[in-house]
Amino acid sequence: MVKYIDNKYAFGRLPKRPEESNKATFGRVLNIAGSTRYIGAAFLSSISSLKVGAGYITLACPKEIIPIIAQMSPELTFLGLNTTIDGVISSNNQIDDLYNYNVISVGCGITTSDETRKFIFNILNSLNKTQKVVIDADGINVLANHKGEISLKNTIITPHPKELSRLLNVTVEEINENREKYARITSQTFECITVLKGHNSIVTNGDKIFINKSGCSALAKAGTGDVLTGIISGLLAQKLSPLDAAILGTYLHGLSGDIASNDLTKYSVMATDVIKYLPLALKEILSES
Q: Phi then psi for 287, rounded to 5 degrees?
């Protein structure tokens, strides 16, 4: 069964915003991201969670980059991690309060360093099956190196075709020829929610398939995938199911890119513009009420 996501469908999945609330009401996200080379990925994937309504974000990142990101966004809180000489997260880190967070997001800008992979594997392997997780980018490469060793129940993965090819051991060409098939196989094999990125991104739980019609070539730019991870994580923190968070987050991300491109052209939209235009995308969806 294939469904297409539109404003009306997205409106039905918007999380509620009760007036009697505080920041804990809307969830806590721990975002493990970044390296000294990819500072922007850590920032973008964190601030976008706040922009879609999550109540509290902690960025766990190399301690060297915290002063830079703190100047960019005083709304974030931080957990400094030890790094290797190359400026990536080292394996000799430990996070003791993982279960204080509603959502763990992993992968944006962490690189493919063996040291970082060891740390991420240990984190993912220590979570219980009820913890909600979003895995993107190099976090997916960790899964490819440890197939079957990590439970992905309650997990959303957001691969592009190249990342998915590593996970499934098939070519990018095969995936692009039958995107629905391989997205479904991924969710069935790993028991997760899959967001296969690209033109007409596909969201599936292995049974139902949702095709996203929002978005355009303006989103084919560095950093926009990090924004998508943050949007989905922020929605997931607000008590949406993993499937609904993936559906709404993917649509909202594309819609924001569409609205931004109307003002800025498809050439000039930056990842930060996708975040900037999120309120207008939300307004458009809310107009369905």
A: -65, -10
In angstroms, rounded to a whole number, what is the distance separating the alpha carbons of residues 47 and 215? Answer: 20
State the DSSP code for 89. B
239-250 pLDDT, tens digit per residue, is 999 999 999 999
> 265: Cβ–Cβ under 8 A, 6 or more apart, which residues?
218
List the one residue out of 80, 82, 84 whose CA is nearest residue 59: 80
Whether the predicted model's global pTM rises above the 0.85 cut: yes
Q: How far apart (Å, rounded) are the C-alpha atoms in residues 41 and 176? A: 26
Q: How many CA atoms lie within 13 A of 162 on its CB side?
A: 2
> Quick check: 24 and 98 in contact, CB under 8 A?
no
139: Cβ contacts below 8 Å, ≥ 6 apart: 106, 107, 108, 110, 120, 124
